[in-house]
Amino acid sequence: MSEAPSSHAADxxxxxxxxxxxxxxxxxxxxxxxxxxMVGSGIVQRTGRRKTRDEWLGGIALLSVCATVALYIWxxxxxxxxxxxTMREECAKAGGAAKAAQVDRYSASYxxxxxxxxxxEGGSYDAAVPGYVNPAMGIAFVLAIATGAxxxxxxxxxxxxxxxxxxxx
Length: 169
Description:
Helices cover 60% and strands 11% of the residues. It is mainly α and 169 residues long.
């Protein structure tokens, strides 16, 4: 049986360490609160009149960006705070005790979020990051891009078809 690996998930193959990831998560939380504040501010400023299609789509785009960032932070926290004993537990949960006993090293990927248990015979399997995080993050990102683009197009159409004012007397 191999000796228990001592590497941390923060020592990923891509070289991103946990301090940088913690900083990225902190920036993500700030971005989430800023975007939610922008959506709330837009709602407060537009009370008393109907919201246009581009305003609705812009709000959905901002909330989709918030969801994407929140999902990334949630998945990253699963990888970031792992210690060597929790790594072995996560590998055992994902692949069973027999596979976990063959694990000789771990690696972490932060895009897409993944914690990989590497078996000494050359195989590997993913653990720790919930299976819904990456697909949900992808869907939220696509929704943010699509609604943001449609919002910009709708806003430009409203500007080009809106009434123009002349400066005459």
